[in-house]
């Protein structure tokens, strides 16, 4: 059936309800029609039976009312249409535009059949009653249809309102949406709403734990990080100034600075809102160039940076550094070819060829997740595409 192909649940229920109402209306009118016809036949049959019994009780001398009936006996000449009925019983015969009702019975004396037949319009005495019955039944039918329609619309309204309430609560499941309560007084719908409330609380609790973990971890890292930075500065002063020692000292100092930036980014990422002193106007091209310059030489040579137009954005610098480092490291992990980076007014495009044979065992797939979290927090766009054996990622800052 075509209505079963309807994908929208509300529309399907509406169509099914309408079809059910139409079927019920048809069955109601059919019942009225059959009932009227059956009542007419029963009434005519009882009248003919009554006349036949009176005729028999008078020893076949008092004939039925000649104004209403025709009596045919074995001695009379039967009409051609009537002669074919020989067995006792109540019959209806369509004679032209008129339907003739009659009774065939057996004379107990002569053992011959006799016929009591309604005259031309005598069996239509119930027409006035039938007309009134049709009016009454029609009004009752209309009332019943309106009642059923109203009930169906009421049930449909309850269902749609409950479904709309569940949809609204599902829309509020994301953590940035307001909380909601259980409102329905229907047990089934109430149970669904309770499950949605529990899911909302679970999401909020998970996010809260994640933020607290980031904040606690970053806070606890600060103390040993301070020690590392101080030790790096002390080594710089104490070690001989030859190139090898200077290189070791610079690497330790650079790593401690990167770790400090990571700690600051984690702390900011765990905050609900960023303070104004954390936001600064940054030239994205300069930050990106600085990140590329700190890459190991084999990685830096594989980066192709195309600066079409400068982009300025107001954001924490640690966020941008974390984004660029993760995207570049992710690209280098999955290909040994060049990485194309294009900076223009639409944002930054990172594009690299895909090579299934190149994959680092140290890659856990968290880099893109971190980038996506930062973009979501700052309201930036983050679009991934894969076509022609190339993976592309577009960052938009508008």
UniProtKB/TrEMBL annotation:
GO terms for molecular function: kinase activity. It is found in: Cell membrane. Keywords: ATP-binding, Cell membrane, Kinase, Membrane, Nucleotide-binding, Phosphoprotein, Transferase, Transmembrane, Transmembrane helix, Two-component regulatory system. It comes from the Bacteria. The chain crosses the membrane at residues 12-35, 135-159. SUPFAM superfamilies: ATPase domain of HSP90 chaperone/DNA topoisomerase II/histidine kinase, Homodimeric domain of signal transducing histidine kinase. It is a multi-pass membrane protein. Residues 216-398 form the Histidine kinase domain. InterPro entries: HATPase_C_sf, His_kinase_dom, HisK_dim/P_dom, HisK_dim/P_sf, HssS/ArlS-like. Its EC number is 2.7.13.3. PROSITE patterns: HIS_KIN. Its main location: membrane. Pfam families: HisKA. It catalyses: ATP + protein L-histidine = ADP + protein N-phospho-L-histidine. This is histidine kinase. The lineage of its organism: Bacteria, Pseudomonadati, Pseudomonadota, Gammaproteobacteria, Thiotrichales.
């Amino acid at each position: 059936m075509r209505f079963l192909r309807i994908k929208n649940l509300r529309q399907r229920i509406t169509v099914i309800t309408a079809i059910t109402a139409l079927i019920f209306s048809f069955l109601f009118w059919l019942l009225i029609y059959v009932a009227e016809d059956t009542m007419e036949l029963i009434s005519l049959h009882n009248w003919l039976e009554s006349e036949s019994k009176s005729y028999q009780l008078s020893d076949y001398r008092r004939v039925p009312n000649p104004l209403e009936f025709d009596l045919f006996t074995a001695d009379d000449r039967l009409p051609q249409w009537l002669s074919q009925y020989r067995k006792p019983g109540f019959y209806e015969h369509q004679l032209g535009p008129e339907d003739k009702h009659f009774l065939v019975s057996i004379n107990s004396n002569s053992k011959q059949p006799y016929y009591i037949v309604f005259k031309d319009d005598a069996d239509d005495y119930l027409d006035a009653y039938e007309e009134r019955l049709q009016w009454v039944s029609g009004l009752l039918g209309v009332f019943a249809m309106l009642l059923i329609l109203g009930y169906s619309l009421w049930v449909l309204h309850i269902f749609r309102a409950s479904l709309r309430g569940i949809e609204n609560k599902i829309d509020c499941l994301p953590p940035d949406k307001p909380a909601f309560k259980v409102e329905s007084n229907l047990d089934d719908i109430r149970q669904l709403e309770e499950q949605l409330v529990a899911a909302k609380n679970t999401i909020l609790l998970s996010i809260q734990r994640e933020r607290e973990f980031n904040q606690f971890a970053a806070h606890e890292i600060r103390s040993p990080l301070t020690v590392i930075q101080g030790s790096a500065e002390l080594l710089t002063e104490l070690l001989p100034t030859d190139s090898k020692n200077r290189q070791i000292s610079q690497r330790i100092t650079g790593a401690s600075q990167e770790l400090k930036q990571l700690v600051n980014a984690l702390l900011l990422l765990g905050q609900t809102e960023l303070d104004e002193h954390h936001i600064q106007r940054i030239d994205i091209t300069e930050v990106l160039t600085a990140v590329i310059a700190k890459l190991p030489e084999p990685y830096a040579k594989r980066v192709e940076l195309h600066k079409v137009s400068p982009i300025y954005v107001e954001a924490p610098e640690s966020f941008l550094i974390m984004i660029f480092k993760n995207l570049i490291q992710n690209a280098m992990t999955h290909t040994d070819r060049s990485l194309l980076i294009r900076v223009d007014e639409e944002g930054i495009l990172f594009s690299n060829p895909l090579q299934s044979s190149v994959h680092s065992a140290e890659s856990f797939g968290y880099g893109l997740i971190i980038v996506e979290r930062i973009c979501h927090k700052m309201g930036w766009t983050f679009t991934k595409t894969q076509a022609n054996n190339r993976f592309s990622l577009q960052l938009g800052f508008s």
